[in-house]
Design brief:
Shape: globular
Helix content: 40-55%
Protein name: C-methyltransferase
Keywords: Methyltransferase, S-adenosyl-L-methionine, Transferase
Strand content: 15-25%
Organism: Streptomyces argillaceus
Largest sheet: 7 strands, mixed
CATH superfamily of the largest domain: Vaccinia Virus protein VP39
InterPro entries: COMT-like, COMT_C, COMT_dimerisation, SAM-dependent_MTases_sf, WH-like_DNA-bd_sf, WH_DNA-bd_sf
Number of strands: 10
CATH class of the largest domain: Alpha Beta
GO molecular function: O-methyltransferase activity; protein dimerization activity
Structural class: alpha/beta
Radius of gyration: 22 Å
CATH architecture of the largest domain: 3-Layer(aba) Sandwich
Number of helices: 15
Order of helices and strands: HHEHHEEHHHHHHEHEHEEHEHHEE
Length: about 325
Amino acid sequence: MAQAVRRAGVLCAGMDLAVFDTMADGPADAETIAARLDVPVRGARVLLRALAAIDLLKTDGERFWLAPGVDRVLVRSSPGWFGDILRHAVSRYEWDALGRLSDAVRRGGTVLDTNAETPDYPFWADLARTPTPHTPLVADLLADTLEPWAAGRERLDVLDVACGHGLYGYTVARRYPQARVRSVDWPGVLEHSRGHAERLGVLDRVELTPGDMFDVPLGGPYDLSLITNVLHHFSAERAGEMLRRLAEATRPGGRIGIVAVTADGRDPASDPVPHLFAALMLAWTHEGESHALETYRDLLTANGFGEPRLHEVGGVPLRLLLAERL
């Protein structure tokens, strides 16, 4: 575990220097690859051997070539290119935060002056540009689950606060032609949200509203309010304040959709993702954490919504909660 930083560093260097793209055509020796990358032979040789040590390359001692499957996920021209997502996973933002985790434990929250709650934090624009592979799966789950309620409606007004990439709202809009979406987020994030709306063919039914979700006028009322992957940045009390805002903006009989990493009461070793994520929230925010499913249930029922229903995609750590506005 302690040496994981070395593996991640070697992987990042391979992606940064486009080593995998350079080697897509077949085996080559260190001198040839160094020439292609325009780097010193010594640097290339050390990196190539390190990549072989973590099984991303194969070597016979002289030549190097891509390990099986690497071409599918680490060569940029591949339809399965995964590099942008990996950059999120090993981003300097998380490294900087977790490098101060012991200080955050002592304080009980982030010690970083610039953190995940800082307005226009650059990480959110990066994530909006290249969503994780889990996002389309959960967005489709949302659209599927809403069908019995949404399909027959003449109009479907959707509010998506802290929308990020916007794919949850835009997937609903693509599925239901009567849907109109209002996307709220920081200006730098909305630049990328617009691109996704255009790519999905729904931009003409989208209104982009820059601002902080706690302060910007939300308008309404809406049939569906979405708040995805953001409430874990705040305390349960602060999350409740946001849910009250959304209740005021949502029509009675409407729906709220929450997407989040949540703990469900299992032993941490059996369900590690939410607990490791909570450590990141401790280092990265002032009061955030991976709220338990029971906490979301209590927050929803205390703030104008009914009992939520839980929906999941196998193997995906994100969970979808849907509840009715009472």
